[in-house]
Amino acid sequence: MKRNIITTADGSQTIQIEDWDEQYHSKHGAIQEAYHVFIKNGLALFANEQITILEIGFGTGLNALITFLEGGKAKLDIDYYGVEAFPISSEEWAQLKYPKALEAEDLQKQFNLMHESAWETIVPVSDTFRLMKQKKQFAAIADLNLFHLIYFDAFGARVQPELWTEDIFGKMFAALRPNGVLVTYAAKGSVRRAMQAVGFVVERLPGPPGKREMLRATKPNLADL
Q1: C-alpha dihedral, 98 to 125 to 46 to 217, nearest 10°
Q2: Which of 35, 40, 43, 83 is the most exposed place for a label (fewest CB within 10 A)?
Q3: In the predicted structure, residue 12 carries a pLDDT above the cut 70
Q4: Is there a contact between 59 and 133 (Cβ–Cβ < 8 Å)?
Q5: pTM listed for this prediction
Q6: For the residues 200-212, what does the mean pLDDT come to?
Q7: What is the mean pLDDT of residues 20-42?
Q8: Cβ–Cβ contacts within 10 Å for residue 7, how many?
Q9: What string of DSSP letters covers the chain?
């Protein structure tokens, strides 16, 4: 499928899949969306602790880079797992000027390392941020009670409905620790119901620019019930 680098409304770039008319991030602003969905409503729940994060759709590396940047400010020690079945090419990620767009050009080395590092290997990006990229389908995830936070950033249900099912969210529920949180830009009723069906407690929250709502799902701690 043909992929193009496009500029979104906040000046940051993303990749568009022409055949699907689908983007890796919102055309209303790639960086704005990432901050609103995954940082403000996800990462910001944690501070001064060690956490393990799973990203569903490593993609361009934008969420990982912003998490590296903001995790440092929050004094977090992070193990970051990025799952991606179809990695972007070196030619594509080299065109994405995310460190500059974030006014953090000193992070160019870390951004390069995130993409250049080997798959299936734990790579220390810094003393407090370790990255493990895994090349596999989301349906192959079988972790249990491992993650504090999941960034669910798969392509939308319009083009890949199989990624937004009870089966997939059941795997996410199992992979989270009790009281763990999943955040996603999606807000469809069918997605919310699939989350609830596997045991999540789901909140509707104000969405990023261009979207009215988003979802945050929490795995309840049965010991607290």
Answers
A1: 70
A2: 40
A3: yes
A4: no
A5: 0.96
A6: 96
A7: 95
A8: 13
A9: --EEEEE-TTS-EEEEETTTTEESS-TT-HHHHHIIIIIITTGGG--SSEEEEEEE--TTSHHHHHHHHHHHHTT-EEEEEEE-SSPPPHHHHHH--HHHHTT-GGGHHHHHHHHHSPTTSEEEEETTEEEEEE-S-GGG----S-EEEEEE-PPPTTT-GGGSSHHHHHHHHHHEEEEEEEEES---HHHHHHHHHTT-EEEEEE-STT-SEEEEEE---GGG-
Confidence at 151, pLDDT banded by 50, 70, 90:
very high
For the chain, give the number of residues: 225
**Mean pLDDT calculated for residue range 151-169:** 95
Total count of domains within the chain: 1
Tokens describing residue 143: 């972790």
- The residue segments making up the domain with residue 87 are 29-224
Please enumerate in sequence order all residues whose Cβ is within 8 A of that of 97, keeping only pairs 6 or more positions apart, or say none: 13
Amino acid at 81: Y
CA–CA distance, 181 with 58 (Å, rounded to integer): 18
Domain of residue 44, CATH code: 3.40.50.150
Task: Assess if residue 21 is contained within a domain.
Answer: no
